[in-house]
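Lecture 7 notes: from sequence to structure.

We start with a single chain of 229 residues. Read the sequence below before looking at the structure.
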Amino acid sequence: MTDKIEFLRKVGLFNQLQDEELIEVAKYFQERHYKRNEIIFFEEDTGQYMYVVSAGRVKVSRLLPSGKEMILAFHETGEYFGEMALIDGGTTPATVTAVVNTSIFSLGATKFRQLLGDNPKINQTLLKMLCARCRDAWSQIEVLTFHNADSRIRTALYQLCQKKGEETDRGTRIRLQLTHKELADITGISRETATRVLSQLQHENLLSVESRHFLIADPEELVDLLALE
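Now the structure, written as tokens:
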């Protein structure tokens, strides 16, 4: 129980709780474990729980009419999802899958709503998070408005640098270990096309790969080149 409490204390949604409140909330979280590529839930399963990634990484995706998978988001350790369906009672048009072996804490709908009613600070944090979710959605729309693959890839890489980047002496390193296929599924293009564009960016010294992480020499240069097209 102590480990669970200390973990939840670091999660943005709960870090405003007093110790006694956190201890009470921790009792209602159940931990589940998922193997790589195991589905955590389908769209029809939403509205029952909110989830916190306690270890590992998950992807949120949906299947397009063409049969192609579109990746909507990734969630890593300490990030949470599923809360929107608990707020409005709707479903999430997506499937959540473990990218690697993953552990998840889940909180039922009844306790979640009670938590919102009892803690105004959590409501404020939740509102900020929902605004961030909206910005992320607009960012993905921005990527998909481009008709050519090169612009989509460069825009997606720039956005990943803003959200998941860490500065190094060689540029901005994207913390996510993304495969070419995953980047292709984010941008709505084929894996072969994504590989071609990434190879060209490497040839232009705008991008390199370091321990399976993308390293962008200068993210702003990606945007500058895009503006010239």
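The CA atoms of residues 53 and 77 lie 5 Å apart. Keep this in mind for problem set 3.
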